[in-house]
């Protein structure tokens, strides 16, 4: 078999385990599947499967996570991609189902997968097999996986956050839990790193909510905290019609400011965080860039410039990694 680096995805997937479960996949093909799932897109359950029997990979899902994962120590990369692939699988459920019942079934599937992994009987599915290897290699904590599943399941209710604290709680249970798992992959057990991870995860969850607002608005959905909207006299309809009035921008300012506060708190632990923890915190590069860009457009969340991909992101991540700062 040719080296994985020389394979295109369809060729690698010929050997990959199908979701119906055959045991013919090589470890290299499973790793390639996870990597491509993170880099290239989500699994679409609404389109026919590929000729190789696996679900089709469609739109980009976690390209920024893909780039930052490449800067982990080489011995950790496959585990990090497995964790990120698991997160992609869960994060795409809400947008890909038309009925909550179907979403609940998919969440239950992944809950059963994690139970089976920790019972040492992983299903023959690429992400599950790679997660099983990561759990065994790094003694990953089951609670973090379950917390991610539980809160993403609750989020299927499709309701706006009642207040900023509710958004922060969701971010802590999903994004921060993901970072805790990456710290375990890196072998970091440090209370200061955990505190930084908590705040970075909250900042990331808040920024993700802001970045997704234009997309959600086109689907007549608004998830921004209700209490902040009411404070500024802004209705959901204002966001749905793409209003760029000052009171709408004031809502965005308040929400973005909370993300900035969490980043500052995370950095207050910098001197006490072990250097080997820093790869898990590289997402701060993305958060910094978004918060700076939205400030420059006066907190107009619908400004076209905010939707452009950062062509210098890989370079910025490398520099931050080389400096060992976050």
TrEMBL record:
Family in the record: Belongs to the NDUFAF6 family.
Keywords, in A-Z order: Membrane, Mitochondrion, Mitochondrion inner membrane, Transit peptide
Lineage summary: Eukaryota, Metazoa, Chordata, Craniata, Vertebrata
Cellular localization per UniProt: Mitochondrion inner membrane
Organism of provenance: Callorhinchus milii
Gene Ontology CC annotation, any one: mitochondrial inner membrane
PANTHER family according to UniProt: NADH DEHYDROGENASE (UBIQUINONE) COMPLEX I, ASSEMBLY FACTOR 6 (PTHR21181:SF13), PTHR21181
Name of the protein in its database record: NADH dehydrogenase (ubiquinone) complex I, assembly factor 6
The organism's place on the tree of life at top rank: Eukaryota
GO biological processes: mitochondrial respiratory chain complex I assembly
Stated role: Involved in the assembly of mitochondrial NADH:ubiquinone oxidoreductase complex (complex I) at early stages. May play a role in the biogenesis of complex I subunit MT-ND1.
